């Protein structure tokens, strides 16, 4: 056999392999990434997990905030009113985030009466996304308190009124 024909045959086989590999109709397997959500049993993707972060305490739309920093037997925290003041008959929202099981909250007037204006709770794996919205005839300084926060390591709940 002529070596030129043998080399040509090998070259054609290699070329055919390259062309076949490049034009294959098989789609590549998708690679999983950290941002890919797992599907829930109902077949819908689970909401993306939000990394825990405390909000800016000087946000001009913030009416009040409660923060829990510590964990274990010696938790620390803050309760801050402002910088904004609640405006009557204008919608405000309670938002929050936590690490652990769940947390409760109450929004109270920051006066001697300490009347409860709103209250609720949410699970840490399902933070509120607009479901705690209110419109009340009250105007003034308010305070938000964390309730039932023993099973959370870190948490924050705040009242915002854009």
If you had to describe this structure to a student in words, what would you say it looks like?
The protein has 162 residues and is mainly β. It is 12% helix and 33% strand. The protein contains one helix and eight strands; from the N terminus they run αββββββββ. The protein has one helix spanning 3-22; strands spanning 62-68, 77-81, 92-100, 102-109, 116-123, 133-134, 142-147, 152-160. The protein has a five-stranded antiparallel sheet with strand order 2-1-8-3-6, with no helix packed on it. The chain has a three-stranded antiparallel sheet with strand order 5-4-7, with no helix packed on it. The longest helix is centred in the first third of the chain and has 20 residues, at 3-22. 19% of the residues are buried. The model is unreliable at 3-41 (pLDDT under 50).
Mean pLDDT: 76
The strand line-up of the biggest sheet is: 2-1-8-3-6
| DSSP strand count | 8
Total number of helical segments? 1
Strand content: 25-35%
Question: Nearest-angstrom radius of gyration?
Answer: 29 Å
Tell the overall outline. Answer: globular
Termini Cα gap:
86 Å
Which spans have pLDDT < 50 for at least 5 consecutive residues?
Answer: 3-41
- Biggest sheet details: 5 strands, antiparallel
Helix- and strand-based class? mainly beta
Helix content: 10-25%
The arrangement of helices and strands along the chain is: HEEEEEEEE
